[in-house]
Amino acid sequence: xxxxxxxxxxxxxxxxxxxxxxxxxxxxxxxxxxxxxxxxxxxxxxxxxxxxxxxxxxxxxxxxxxxxxxxxxxxxxxxxxxxxxxxxxxxxxxxxxxxxxxxxxxxxxxxxxxxxxxxxxxxxxxxxxxxxxxxx
Length: 136
What we know:
Blueprint: E1 7-11, H1 15-25, E2 29-36, E3 39-45, E4 53-57, H2 67-79, E5 84-89, H3 92-101, E6 105-112, E7 118-123, E8 129-134
Parallel strand pairs: 1-4, 5-8
Antiparallel strand pairs: 2-3, 3-4, 6-7, 7-8
């Protein structure tokens, strides 16, 4: 089989704040920005990975989700337990300092984890956990 990751999804509540974080803080390029019925889906990604996107989408925009389920999703987003993504960089310390300097919410600084991975973590404007690991 020849399967690739084309896109992954993270929720957002404020498309402009999320766009500013992923474009201006992380340096991702905007691939598309599509609005429909007052909602926005924004695809972003690293310039050097043009075939892989992260789609920032309205939470619980899927049909069939109940009001109770929608409330649960919003509550989980507020606690930072609904969604996240793992990114990688060769320069973890430099990346951490550059992202921290923008005022992004730091979850933890560069740390050697018990499994041997060294990483740091931030929260995006929607509360999603953005972990960045050091590529070795």
